[in-house]
Design a protein that fits this description.
single chain; 106 residues; mainly alpha; 2 domains; 4 helices; elongated
Length: 106
């Protein structure tokens, strides 16, 4: 037995699909705490970009603090070992990334 049609025409079906797609995209952005995209593709999404960069920066600060705490909790022998030095280099690289984000001025 054939199923009953939900939409009268193919164009109505496609319009409903596009609407569902837009709603799903809006919901995804809302879950991430991002504002919606600008209506025109030529308009910059500065607010969205700034928010995304700030969240990324907060995560990087968290990782930096955890890595520094891990390093500080290790023995002096470990800190001076090859693994300790490699870990310290990673922490310094992360500090440089955070400095670069600060330079963006967002």
């Amino acid at each position: 037995m054939p199923q009953k049609r939900k939409h009268a025409t193919n164009s109505a079906r496609q319009a409903a699909y596009r609407t569902r797609l837009q709603e799903a995209r809006k919901q995804e952005l809302a879950e991430r705490g991002l504002p919606t995209l600008p209506p025109l593709s030529s308009m910059p999404g500065t607010t969205r970009w700034t928010g995304a960069i700030r969240r990324a920066e907060a995560l990087l600060v968290l990782v930096h603090d955890e890595m520094q705490g891990y390093f500080d909790d290790r023995s002096e022998a470990w800190q001076e070992s090859e693994r300790g030095q490699l870990h310290q280099e990673r922490i310094e690289a992360l500090s440089e990334v955070l400095s670069a984000l600060d330079a963006l001025g967002l």
